[in-house]
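Running low. Any example?
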Amino acid sequence: MKIFVPREPEFEKRCGLIPSDAKRLIALGAEVSVEQGLGDKSGYSDAEYTQAGAQVVALRTSGIAEADMVVRLRKPPADEIAKGKRGAMHVSFLDPFNEKGLMDAFAAAGTSAFSMEMMPRTTLAQKMDAISSQANLAGYVAVVRAAERMNKILPMMMTPAGTLSPARVFIIGVGVAGLQAIATAKRLGARVEAFDTRPVVEEQVKSLGAKFVKIDIGETGQTAQGYATALTPEQIAKQQAGMAKICSQSDIVITTAKLFGRKAPILVTKAMVDGMKPGSIVVDLAASDNGGNCELTVAGKESLTANGVLIIGDTCLEAGAAYNASQMYSANVANFIDHFWDKKEKTFAIKLEDEIIKGCLITHGGAIVHERFKKA
């Protein structure tokens, strides 16, 4: 089986497969080729891929045309889909909730397209969960980015000239990214508070040395896959009112509340930002072209409000640690391929009744087959 990994768009620092995982797939019996310069921006040279046994090719079109499976990180340009073999496989993030045209193109091309966003959150699939691996790094980078931009230090410091108070950090949303943000801020010496609509995470917050903020917004819960359920408008209003005072006292506010497949909820309003101290920072991990958790977030930019609050709307904070982000994504993909590898036939076996395959296979056999998208 031939696996090809093309270079990512110019703005993307990460890559879809690193040399050590290329070597691992070759050991399974796959032929691996990568586009020239694939890992340049993330710290992996062409020579490392060659040493791992992969072929480095200059012509992207030929790599796609000959591949039985194309592996990448970001969704492909629509015009590339028809250039692949009919019946070939594709593995990457696909944003299937917002890319109906792309899914139709995969179906028309007869491609078996796997969406890394749709990997089930089960114990067995944990090692393939790219959403969680990237969110983990985003939580870390969010704190480091804020610490770099802030005009204060994070830890308490006792000096002959006096005592410097620790910075106050408020984390909204205690999923994978939020927990890593808490842990990083605590390691840097900040005073950390956190809030989540799921009371079940209180113990995790406390175990990391942070204070769990309790706001009574009524009955809440989480989905079977561990995501927070969407709040009603009334609950969001209560939550905002409860958080306003904490935001006004905080030096850094980090929001992490993404709702998979839906627009992120506004948790930090303009009025809340207006009440924050000059020099304080909001890092919006839910920033996207559809907005974010902060009402004033501008996707892809850092913006300064009239009252001196910096809002960081980076849509891909994990790329700030591109070497490790590539390493983790590559491991997720390699684990996925390895799990379904047929050692006798030396190929990836699409087991349509398998829970993991059913969770992430979007198109197959010329049609959209995923239950959540085929009716749409």
Observations:
- Residues 280 and 309 are 5 Å apart (CA to CA).
- DSSP finds twelve helices and 19 strands in the chain.
